[in-house]
Write a structure and sequence with these properties.
Elements: H1 7-19, E1 31-32, E2 41-48, E3 50-52, E4 63-65, E5 70-80, E6 85-89, E7 94-101, E8 111-122, E9 128-129, E10 136-140, E11 146-156, E12 161-166, E13 169-175
Length: about 180
């Protein structure tokens, strides 16, 4: 079976591809973007009893619970895509810095700065736990689109605020809701 296509028809199609913008034929893939370019800032903080890496109807799912004397703090970060982009991350790229009383010292005089790793991260559900090196990609095809992610940390019960950090930026201070201890 042969299809009869004239040379003039081929010429018209080829000329149209050169004249008509390429966006009609193929979308340019978004560029890889550093999270720092999204200008992420802390917008919300909450304390959770547990985190799950799947929906409740899933037969087998992992769970993170804080040990006695600790709590899980979930910090919401919000930024904006500067252009169509792809941003990748690992939970282990995030950490927090908080102060605690140095063992055997007066709380009003001496405190230690502690750096704690993130235990999970999410661009929504489910949570990605800090158990491996797998990355998650967030695709934003529109300039100016909001990017929201949550990062979870386990900290001592008496911690009232922490500084959220990524390997490429600092997102700011997160004041933890609840009673001051």
């Amino acid at each position: 079976m042969s299809i009869g296509i004239s040379r003039s028809a081929v010429f018209v199609v080829a000329a149209a591809m050169l004249i008509v913008p390429g966006s009609l034929f193929a979308e340019k893939p978004p560029e890889l973007t550093e999270l720092a370019q999204l200008k992420m800032k802390v917008t919300a903080v909450e304390v959770k009893d547990a985190l799950y890496d799947g929906p409740s109807d899933l037969a087998e799912r992992n769970i993170i619970k804080a040990d006695e004397g600790a709590k899980i703090v979930v910090v919401t970060l919000r930024g904006t895509a500067p252009r169509p982009c792809i941003a990748t991350f690992k939970p282990t790229d995030f950490s927090c810095v908080y102060e605690e009383v140095a063992p055997g010292h007066d709380a009003t005089k001496e405190r230690d700065s502690v750096v704690g790793p993130a235990v999970a991260a999410s661009f929504g559900e489910p949570w990605l736990f800090s158990l491996g090196v797998r990355t998650v990609s967030y695709y934003s095809y529109e300039k100016g689109r909001p990017v929201v992610m949550k990062i979870a940390f386990v900290v001592p019960l008496d911690v009232n605020s922490l500084l959220v950090r990524h390997v490429t930026f600092s997102a700011g201070k997160a004041v933890i809701p609840g009673k001051k201890r």
